[in-house]
Amino acid sequence: MITKEDVEHVGWLARIEIDEKDADEYASQLNDVLNHFEQLDEVDTENVPPTYHVIDLVNVFREDVARESLTQDKALENTSSSKEGYFKSYRII
């Protein structure tokens, strides 16, 4: 069971100021969450195979193949602003 003191301690560790009223409320809410997990522990999963993902996916990455890159002119073809062969952007200070 999570107590008000536990909530205050975690708040102190996280450098979050929690007043007493909120600490009581958070403790109650966190205990409700833990009670839901206890209900899940009661479910019979004896004959259920473990799953790591509900959809059977395989690696969708493409093969890493070296190929010729874009030329400088081709890379700058769609930009609205370039200068001396480079992308031109706003000054950021």
UniProtKB/TrEMBL annotation:
It catalyses: L-glutamyl-tRNA(Gln) + L-glutamine + ATP + H2O = L-glutaminyl-tRNA(Gln) + L-glutamate + ADP + phosphate + H(+); L-aspartyl-tRNA(Asn) + L-glutamine + ATP + H2O = L-asparaginyl-tRNA(Asn) + L-glutamate + ADP + phosphate + 2 H(+). It comes from the Archaea. The keyword Thylakoid does not apply. One of its GO terms (biological process) is translation. InterPro entries: Asp/Glu-ADT_sf_sub_c (IPR036113), GatC (IPR003837). Keywords: ATP-binding, Ligase, Nucleotide-binding, Protein biosynthesis, Transferase. Pfam families: GatC. Its EC number is 6.3.5.-. GO terms for molecular function: asparaginyl-tRNA synthase (glutamine-hydrolyzing) activity; ATP binding; glutaminyl-tRNA synthase (glutamine-hydrolyzing) activity; transferase activity. Heterotrimer of A, B and C subunits. Allows the formation of correctly charged Asn-tRNA(Asn) or Gln-tRNA(Gln) through the transamidation of misacylated Asp-tRNA(Asn) or Glu-tRNA(Gln) in organisms which lack either or both of asparaginyl-tRNA or glutaminyl-tRNA synthetases. The reaction takes place in the presence of glutamine and ATP through an activated phospho-Asp-tRNA(Asn) or phospho-Glu-tRNA(Gln). PANTHER family: GLUTAMYL-TRNA(GLN) AMIDOTRANSFERASE SUBUNIT C, MITOCHONDRIAL. Belongs to the GatC family. This is Aspartyl/glutamyl-tRNA(Asn/Gln) amidotransferase subunit C. It comes from Methanohalobium evestigatum (strain ATCC BAA-1072 / DSM 3721 / NBRC 107634 / OCM 161 / Z-7303).
